[in-house]
Amino acid sequence: MAGLATLLASIRHQAGALCTLRAVAVPHPPHSPPQPSHTQTFSTSRSVPACHSPGEDTEVSEPGGAQKLQEERKALGKRPKEGEESGDLSPLNSDEARSERLAQPRLARRETLREMALRSKMSRLVEATSLLVQVEQTLLLPLLHQHPLSLHPKDSIEFRNICSRMALQREGQQFERDLHEAHQRLKTIIEKLICSLAVSPSDSYIPVRSALRQILRDLLAM
């Protein structure tokens, strides 16, 4: 009965860790998208006056008469050509804006790929934890009434504590370290459980060991 009580305690800690992991795995709005939009708005606001300035000059020149209007139109017609021949700054500004637009998506793309990798690793951890709790509840728990095992809930407690730390900080290097540590701790839980089942002479534990090995293979495939 001691093994049964220990397994129940371990399942309780693992189930608490699973709830925390599922809450952490919920995607939250990233901080990076507002920056590109802000940069684009800023660059657009700089180009708007240059685009609308000819139209504004034309409207102001209307009260001055037809002759002044033609002279100003001729002057405006010459300015772009002179700018093109003399290497005006407007082409340079467009090149700089283009290079900024090309550089910014690359930064956003790298951040997105990193977030996708972490999200994938988190989803695999959630799936492995969920399967472990399911196997313990449906397969292992009924067998302990007939064939007791020596189990230790310490690793499950540590696993729950690591997941609680992850809930406090959902990004950054500390989060990545905690995610890696949670992965290693869950791996240890499954390996120790397999070793405990291997010691037992009962053939009833063979399906349980097979299910646990499959969970471990999926976890190590990350």
UniProtKB/TrEMBL annotation:
<dbReference type="InterPro" id="IPR031510">
    <property type="entry name" value="DLEU7"/>
</dbReference>
<feature type="signal peptide">
    <location>
        <begin position="1"/>
        <end position="17"/>
    </location>
</feature>
<feature type="compositionally biased region" description="Basic and acidic residues">
    <location>
        <begin position="69"/>
        <end position="84"/>
    </location>
</feature>
<feature type="compositionally biased region" description="Basic and acidic residues">
    <location>
        <begin position="95"/>
        <end position="108"/>
    </location>
</feature>
<dbReference type="Pfam" id="PF15760">
    <property type="entry name" value="DLEU7"/>
</dbReference>
<protein>
    <submittedName>
        <fullName>LEU7 protein</fullName>
    </submittedName>
</protein>
<feature type="region of interest" description="Disordered">
    <location>
        <begin position="28"/>
        <end position="108"/>
    </location>
</feature>
<keyword id="KW-0732">Signal</keyword>
